[in-house]
Amino acid sequence: MKPLLRAEALTKRFGGTLALDALDLEIAEGEFFALLGGSGSGKSTLLRIIAGFETPDSGRLLLDGHDIAATPPWARPVNMMFQSYALFPHMNVADNVAYGLRRAGVARADVTGRVASALAMVGLSGFERRKPHQLSGGQRQRVALARSLVMRPRLLLLDEPLGALDAGLRERTGFELRALQRETGAAFVMVTHDQEEALALADRVALLDGGRIAQVGAPRAIYERPASRFVARFLGAANVLEGRAMEGRFDSAEAGATFAGDIPAHTAAIALRPERIRVAVAAEGANTARGVVEDVAFRGDDSLVLVRLTGGATLRVAHAEEDGAPPMRGADVYLAWDAEAVVALPA
């Protein structure tokens, strides 16, 4: 896909705090892109720089090859939907959606048609005369989205767009958001701290840590093949075990186990996802371990089983309900996993 937006060595400080550290990033036309990270990772700062609400201390921000780092927000073909939705309480739905068009000097006849089209797109036809306080949280979110889409931006920025919704509505609205992105063809850039949200909605995900990108790629790729200990632990809370690689094997004293798989000589640690580990009747050799169950927590589709291994490390194991009752606390267990589940991590 053709690059729409490119960040080159973007750096931003707030006093003595380095928010962005020479960050490089490309976002393609028509892409749904997620910026994921914990508090202080730099994701919101990057979003505000793209929107024009912050100016980088150094580096370039290129839109279609033109540096827009010094361009004011109103002059960019970029719209932003805020987490709070920021609707005008004294205006009805139609006027809230039309606000940007009127400020831009769009003809009244065109405003009416574009507002109607935007509200139809988000499923709010017939709500034109309602005030924000007469709407549910999900409906207010849709009004804010319609207000952004009515401007026909090349790039739409979403700041925690589903954060104010309850769990059931989050999932449904997320799929609707994805469908709208496909329908409009605009590039969407979403900031979120919710990894499930990022993995479910985005074409690509950038995981930020300390103002830098720890890893960027398709959701499945970065989940299954994390590039570092940080990525492995942040996405899906993988088990990370230290040890030493030798001749295609990895010996971990803290696990009391040997891991076999695609393990380069420079490997300093391995990652193993909880859902890739199974409780076995008996097991021995490589890619097996023994331990004692320390705790069990029911999670709906599965149970999280914490197993203290013979080497002293604790392994997180996701035991599926379809596999029967999980082992009891205090039980001695055997664990096993396939070689493909072992992910080598660099030093």
Outline:
Helix content is 24%, strand content 35%. The protein has 347 residues and is of the alpha+beta class.
Tell me what the structure shows.
The chain has a six-stranded mixed β-sheet, sandwiched between helices. Strands 16-20-17-18-19 form a five-stranded antiparallel β-sheet, with no helix packed on it. It has a four-stranded antiparallel β-sheet with strand order 2-1-4-5, with helices on one face. It has two domains: 3-224, P-loop containing nucleotide triphosphate hydrolases (Rossmann fold); 245-345, Nucleic acid-binding proteins (OB fold (Dihydrolipoamide Acetyltransferase, E2P), Beta Barrel). The model has no long low-confidence stretch (mean pLDDT 90). The chain has helices at residues 43-51, 93-103, 108-121, 137-149, 167-184, 195-201, 219-224, 229-234, and strands at 3-14, 17-28, 32-36, 58-63, 66-67, 78-81, 155-159, 187-192, 204-209, 212-217, 239-242, 244-246, 249-252, 257-260, 269-272, 278-280, 288-298, 302-309, 314-320, 332-336, 343-345. 24% of the residues lie in helices and 35% in strands. The longest helix is centred in the middle third of the chain and has 18 residues, at 167-184. With 347 residues, it is α+β, with helices and mostly antiparallel strands. It is built from eight helices and 21 strands. The two termini are 33 Å apart. It is elongated, with a radius of gyration of 24 Å.
Q: What Rg is obtained from the alpha carbons, in whole angstroms?
A: 24 Å
Number of domains: 2
CATH class of the largest domain: Alpha Beta
Question: What is the assigned CATH homologous superfamily of the largest domain?
Answer: P-loop containing nucleotide triphosphate hydrolases
Quaternary status: single chain
CATH architecture classification of the largest domain: 3-Layer(aba) Sandwich
Q: Which structural category do the helix and sheet elements fall into? A: alpha+beta
> What is the N-to-C succession of helices and strands?
EEEHEEEHHHEHEHEEHHEEEEEEEEEEE
The proportion of residues forming helix, as a percent range, comes to: 10-25%
Number of DSSP strands? Answer: 21
Kindly report the CATH topology of the largest domain: Rossmann fold
* Strand content range: 25-35%
Overall pLDDT, averaged?
A: 90
Task: Count every helix, treating DSSP H or I runs of 4 or more residues as helices.
Answer: 8
- Write down the overall geometry: elongated
**Low confidence ranges:** none
Sheet with most strands:
6 strands, mixed
> Biggest sheet, strands in spatial order?
6-7-8-3-9-10
Amino-to-carboxy terminus distance:
33 Å
